[in-house]
Amino acid sequence: MPRIQIDGKPVEVPDGLNLIEAARLLNIEIPHYCYHSGLSVVGSCRMCQIELEFNGRKSIALGCNTLAADGMQITTTSDEIRSIRRAVLEFYLQHHPLDCPICDDAGECDLQNYYMEHGLHDSRVDLAEKKHKHKVIDVGPTVVLDSERCILCTRCVRFCREIVGKDQLGVYGHGSDAELMNVPGTKLDNDYAGNVVDLCPVGALTDKDFRFKRRVWYLKRTPSVCTGCSRGCNISIDWETSRSYKDSGRRIQRLKPRYNKMVNEWWICDRGRYSYHAVDAPNRLLMPISNAEEREHGVSINAILARAAAKIEAIIDQNGSASIAVLGSAHSSNEDLFMLKRLFADHLKVQNIDVNLPGEANGSEDQILMKADLAPNRRGAQAIGAVPWGGEGQNGEAILEGAREGEFEILIIVDHDLTQYLGEKALHKLRKHTGYILYLSSHSNGMSEIADDVLPLAMWAERAATYTNFQGRIQRTSQAFDPLGLATPEWKYWYELAAMLGCKCDYETPQEVFNAIGEHTESFKGLRWDDLGDQGLMLTDAPEPAYRKIQCPNPLPAY
Predict the structure, then answer these.
(1) N or C end of the chain, less CB within 10 A?
(2) C-alpha of 285 from chain center
(3) Is 548 a domain residue?
(4) Residues with Cβ < 8 Å from 519, sequence gap 6 or more?
(5) pLDDT, tens digit, for every residue of 414-435?
(6) CATH number at residue 410
(7) pTM tops 0.85, yes or no
(8) Which residues are CB-contacts of 270 (< 8 A; sequence separation ≥ 6)?
């Protein structure tokens, strides 16, 4: 491991590390535009120049394509380097439009930030002399390009070629006429297109979904995990609730990828990026509903739980637990599934419990990030024991078939809309022959119309919880804001129902429930909430997967 000095501070760095990454080990930021840790190095922006003393010679070098070698001495803050950076910034700002007040990137723009830190020069270019290029270019379904703002760093071009494996953006022309645009005959329509907006260091590429919606300095940021598939990409929720002049009722303004080397690195797919719209969708369930009492709205959650408890007790007394079936959900958190198991499988001895229905894992999948299984916690359900529970009980497919034939006196369903699986005749039989249906969901659908009682569920951004991805990595979501209406985390319903049915659990928070999972479940043995950190931990019986650099299996050559 080479030993070097950066601004007089010694540091030992891994072999093959460049100087930008080496400086980060000391929390020293060498400014740069074209360099990105996940892309090939092109050394075109010239912003990362540093003073280098090595083998008795002094020189000016690029931090991005200079690898650390034993004995190097690097200076990042000398007068000469400051002068070089100021000159580079003046070059970039020569024709850059002065439209920061209307730019979505204002407030998080590296051109602004570096100017305030390294520039602060007066412009020598008359506004009338600035070169004009194409503006508001529709480069794809989700992204808009303003070529005048572009500094030709080519991050977006390299991302498409190296990570996605498609040529969809390129730089055309020479000198001051060079311009970013679509590769002829293509659109930026790949499944990861939104990442080019994250990569753009200025405001050239903007997201249509976020465009002109909020100023970034109003946004609050909460770390979380995407629940759109079993990958569990790490994300940040950028949200804002106090200003409703645009898109009133829209709490989440955007999702951004959050770095996790072992899960998603720097990227997320567009399927997950725009999935947040469901959180504030018009069909969110906000109140409990009792269809058993002539569509009675205004019924309390406690009244529904009390009715469910009474019916469960009566049926078990009369016919035993075999007349009850529970269809949980692999979209539920570890805490939800643990509490469901404690109540129904352990306490009530219900054996007909499963989370799986046929044909669920049918999303699109690739070899980059997207998984076909759209449930974020199927591995967690397996580890807790949900496939199915009870040994002799029926699995999800058999429960669905039994529901078609009206076999069960009580049917408790989480999230699944059985109206998508059942024909009209079977649906009529289900409703006619099932004594009581309790349905828990975040959104209204066909099932919420026919269930006897409906309880509204809080969504992932409205609660703290843990999910276990397909690899076996347990990761946390954080609560960004309060649930809409009376929506409640699922585990709390089971907690309250358990108390009514004589199953006492001393858990007041999701943190306490997770810690109980670590005490009672073999695959979680010894794990505690506070130990999970920002990057998560593996199930105790799941090996840490080998690191895999995320890119297209057959990337195009580096730009």
Answers:
(1) N
(2) 23
(3) no
(4) none
(5) 999 988 888 778 888 888 889 9
(6) 3.40.50.740
(7) yes
(8) 142, 191, 192, 193, 194
